Automatic annotation (TrEMBL):
Residues 40-108 form the DUF3592 domain. This is DUF3592 domain-containing protein. It comes from the Bacteria. It comes from Arthrobacter nitrophenolicus. Keywords: Membrane, Signal, Transmembrane, Transmembrane helix. Residues 1-19 form the signal peptide. The chain crosses the membrane at residues 122-142.
Length: 143
């Protein structure tokens, strides 16, 4: 029976590691793009409501993804939707900074240090959590 617990633990650790590596690569790619893409002040035009996943035993909560418009260096107006959610609905007319692809300004990203900070906190949390689960499996009474 203990071997089944260790297999489930190993699958959990592998899935968590895969998810963190994928998130780190995506974040790094976006940071590299934003470093070379031109920046613009965008005006919030509204938001798209969504929900958190409710993972980790937390309850689902409503989140808002700002929609915005900005002008490129030629003055052409473009729109976009942020991948960064907010707990409070953003105020239309407020400003956010975006980076846009000069070859295709329809591709833009909201500039924010939050994803890297969050990812930096999740890695040690999952490492400690995985070790605690491993220890718990070793002392779990199966009789």
């Amino acid at each position: 029976m203990r071997i089944i617990l260790y297999v489930v633990w190993a699958l959990f650790v592998a899935a968590a590691a895969f998810a963190m590596v994928h998130a780190a690569r995506k974040t790094r790619r976006q940071e590299q793009l934003m470093a070379v893409w031109p920046k613009a002040q965008a005006t919030v035009t509204g938001s798209v409501p969504g929900w958190t996943s409710g993972g980790g035993g937390s309850s689902r909560s409503r989140r808002f993804f700002p929609t915005y418009q900005f002008s490129d260096s030629a003055g052409t107006l473009y729109t976009g939707k942020s991948e960064i959610s907010r707990a409070a609905e953003p105020v239309p007319g407020s400003l956010i900074e975006v980076a846009y692809n000069p070859d295709n300004p329809n591709e833009s990203l909201q500039v924010s240090p939050v994803p890297r900070t969050t990812l930096g906190c999740l890695v040690p949390f999952f490492a400690v959590f995985a070790l605690a689960l491993f220890w718990f499996i070793s002392i779990f009474p199966l009789d």
